[in-house]
Design brief:
By secondary structure, the protein is an alpha/beta fold. The protein folds into 2 domains: 78-315, Type I PLP-dependent aspartate aminotransferase-like (Major domain) (Aspartate Aminotransferase, domain 2), CATH 3.40.640; 320-440, Aspartate Aminotransferase, domain 1, CATH 3.90.1150. It has helices at 17-23, 55-67, 78-98, 112-127, 146-155, 172-180, 205-214, 234-237, 262-265, 302-318, 320-338, 379-388, 401-407, 423-440, and strands at residues 36-37, 40-41, 43-44, 106-109, 133-137, 158-162, 187-193, 219-222, 241-245, 256-260, 278-281, 286-288, 344-347, 350-352, 355-357, 369-374, 391-392, 394-396, 412-416. Strands 4-10-9-8-7-5-6 form a 7-stranded mixed β-sheet, with helices on both faces. The protein has a 4-stranded antiparallel β-sheet with strand order 13-16-19-18, covered by helices on one side. Strands 1-2 form a two-stranded antiparallel ribbon. Helix 3 crosses helix 10 (302-318), helix 4 (112-127) runs parallel beside helix 5 and helix 12 crosses helix 14. The radius of gyration is 22 Å and the shape is globular. The N and C termini lie far apart (62 Å). The model is unreliable at 1-14 (pLDDT under 50).
Length: 441
């Protein structure tokens, strides 16, 4: 690319990435982790909500605004062409990261929520009719539930739910029956989370996709909680749609991705109208642009897409397999330490010899999400007191109210880990719990 001012380069990560992660050496890339909260060193354990950003991502945003800022596509001047090159290069980075077949299958959105809303509208308009059915699971985030409820209201379709087994895993026998049961309409789409943001369960999406495809039903995978933690290969999964957010994988907020197989995207109408998604416009009619631009109305967040690419490059340089291995180790360590807390109940994990461990049937966790309650203490009270010790956790229903109802609870405390967390973070967290629990009993 012909540039007068280079974009901030990515510093190469040494090959011994796993040891760097174990030693916490990469924390230096995240300046916010050095700050204090209420006079205490910050222990950030709310990564399922959003991750912190490495310096390279923040600097890339500033660098582009300072030196390459111009609206993308169709501009003939230098800055516009340079910004367009960065934007489209980012699409290729995303394609490689999830191993899509073509950049035509990569649609930039504001995040997982908008990706699913786009799909619910456009897929629904193209393929869904009165009496048809959409299948979701009992552990979905509201973002993979409410858009489908809205589709059902709009198109008079029916929402059906894959139930949970007693161990918190999805009941695949019941899922198969949902696909086979004779109803008025056809099952048009299966929508399932790759990883539960509450239970930490890694769902067997490969098997779910295989079963659905055997019944000629396409599948959407919500990858918001999987993409940051382990390798995603959409071609190997053979999913028909896949969605994820930039801010959960060390990138900026307001940027996300919807992957879709071309055969479906070509048949779906646009989600929004305006600039960029058109080919020709007259007062009588409009013809639409090619993929992926048909679904990208208006000025995109071209600075954000470039910053997302920088974040993905950062993860790639470390090695997603190294990140996954380290986070599994750290999650198991956290489970061992938390198991020492009297009256603690950790959801989605099973107890063996007094220690909570990942499930092994119809799902595996160890995905860096740990949700728990302690006795009858309210989760909000626990989170509030931990915050005064500088420990950031999430409390509440985590945008999964139906799942909470199934579990018979109002909410949980959720600690969620990322590549920059350490055993020292876990030790501080557990010590904090041991300090505040007696205050609340």
């Amino acid at each position: 690319m012909n540039t007068q001012t280079p974009i901030v380069p990515i510093s190469p990560i040494p090959s011994s990435s796993l040891e760097k992660l174990r030693k916490g050496d990469l924390r230096v890339d995240f300046p916010i982790l050095s700050r204090t909260v209420y006079g205490k060193p910050l222990v950030y354990l709310d990564n399922a909500a959003t991750t912190q950003k490495p310096r390279s991502v923040v600097e890339a945003i500033a660098e582009e605004y300072y030196n390459v800022n111009a609206n993308v596509h169709r501009g003939v001047h230098f800055l516009s062409q340079q910004a367009t090159e960065l934007h489209e290069a980012s699409r290729e980075t995303v394609r490689q990261f999830i191993n899509a077949r073509s950049t035509s299958e990569i649609i930039f959105t504001r995040g997982t929520t908008e990706s699913i809303n786009l799909l619910a509208f456009s897929f629904g308009e193209a393929f869904c009719h009165e009496g048809d059915e959409i299948i979701i699971s009992a552990m979905e985030h509201h973002s993979n539930l409410v858009p489908w409820q809205m589709l059902c209201e709009r198109k008079s379709t029916t929402l059906r739910v894959i139930p949970l087994r007693s161990d918190g895993t999805l009941d695949l026998d019941a899922f198969t029956q949902l696909l086979q049961s004779p109803h008025k309409g056809a099952v048009r789409l299966v929508c399932v989370t790759h990883v539960s943001n509450v239970l930490g369960m890694v769902n067997p999406v490969e098997r779910i996709i295989e079963i659905a495809h055997a019944h000629d039903v396409p599948v959407l995978v919500d990858g918001a909680q999987s993409t940051p933690h382990f390798k995603v290969d959409v071609q190997a999964l053979d999913c028909d749609f896949f969605a994820f957010s930039g801010h959960k994988i060390y990138g900026p907020t307001g940027v996300g991705v919807l992957y879709g197989k071309e055969q479906y995207l070509e048949s779906m109408p646009p989600y929004q109208g305006g600039g960029e998604m058109i080919r020709n416009v007259s007062f009588e009619r409009t013809t639409y642009n090619d993929l992926p631009y048909k679904f990208e109305a208006g000025t995109p967040d071209y600075v954000g897409t470039h910053a997302l690419a920088v974040a993905l490059d950062y993860v790639t340089a470390i090695g997603i397999d190294s990140i996954h291995q380290y986070e599994v180790e750290l999650t198991r360590y956290a489970l061992e330490q938390l198991s020492q807390i009297p009256d603690i109940h950790i959801y989605g994990y099973q107890k063996e010899d007094g220690i909570y461990v990942p499930q092994s049937k119809n799902g595996v966790n160890g995905s860096s999400v740990i949700s728990f309650n302690v006795g009858h203490i309210h989760h909000l009270d626990l989170g509030t007191l931990l915050d005064r010790l500088g420990i950031a956790v999430r409390t509440g229903h985590h945008c999964a109210e139906p799942l909470m109802h199934l579990l018979g609870i109002e909410g949980t405390v959720r600690a969620s880990l990322a590549l920059y967390n350490t055993r020292n973070d876990i030790d501080t967290f557990v010590a904090g719990l041991k300090r505040v629990i007696p205050m609340l009993n």
